[in-house]
Amino acid sequence: MSDQGAILAGIFGIGGVVIGSVLTIAKDSLSDHFKKKQSANYAAIHIVCVLDEFFDSCVDVVGDDGTEGGQSAGGTEYGESYLLPQVKPPSPPRYPHDIDWKSVKAGLMYRILALPNEVEEIRQYLADYRKHDWPPSRDYFDERQKAYARLALNVLKIASEIRKTYGIPARPVHDWQEDWSAETWLGQRLSEIEDRGKGARSRVEKGAADGSAQQEN
């Protein structure tokens, strides 16, 4: 073999090694990419299912006004009635232990993992409120419904973003749900509660102003 042939053979040999190495790296990279994608999809689907169930539980609490059959649900031995919660608040969402959280986008992961803390803050706030409001008044139920309505809307927003990011289908809509939207209903409930709160504050302020005017006279 001539020197030129030897050189060419050497070049082809080195080229073959390089190409082989590149193909191996590309193969491993693609394999790793698909594994991460599968892991992310697995995580997203399981998280969304957990959030959907948690969302429904929050909506149930928002619909609880302390009555049963249109009447105050609580009662004393003396026949006095009062409002009493009928729906147990949901426990913090519990995610599967085998989720690879590193496969979830950082911003979403933070919001998802922060939900249990939000639930605990609401529970503690309402527990403190109830210490000074027993039997529960309409104000307590307004605070309870408002807290869980806001939480439900936050959960809905997170679940919607996960669906959009990972291509997960929307929740199925049943025939009896076609003319009803949980998001719209929650917004309406919040507006009603806020309007009622504004009305109560206006009455208090008017009463205080009338009292001051009478003292001046």
Kindly summarize this structure in a few lines.
The protein is mainly alpha-helical and 217 residues long. It has helices at residues 3-62, 106-131, 138-166, 182-216, and strands at 67-68, 71-72, 74-75, 81-82. The chain starts with a helix and ends with a helix.
Secondary-structure map with pairings?
Blueprint: H1 3-62, E1 67-68, E2 71-72, E3 74-75, E4 81-82, H2 106-131, H3 138-166, H4 182-216
Antiparallel strand pairs: 1-2, 3-4
Helix pairs in contact: 1-3, 2-3, 3-4
Write up what this structure looks like:
This protein is mainly alpha-helical and 217 residues long. It has one domain (45-171, 180-211). Helices cover 69% and strands 4% of the residues. The protein has four helices and four strands, in the order H-E-E-E-E-H-H-H. It has helices at 3-62, 106-131, 138-166, 182-216, and strands spanning 67-68, 71-72, 74-75, 81-82. The strands form two sheets. Strands 1-2 form a two-stranded antiparallel ribbon. The chain has a two-stranded antiparallel ribbon with strand order 3-4. A hairpin with a 5-residue loop joins strand 3 (74-75) and strand 4. Helix 2 runs antiparallel to helix 3 (138-166) and helix 3 (138-166) packs antiparallel against helix 4 (182-216). The chain is elongated, with a radius of gyration of 30 Å. Residues 26-31 and 203-213 have low confidence and may be disordered.
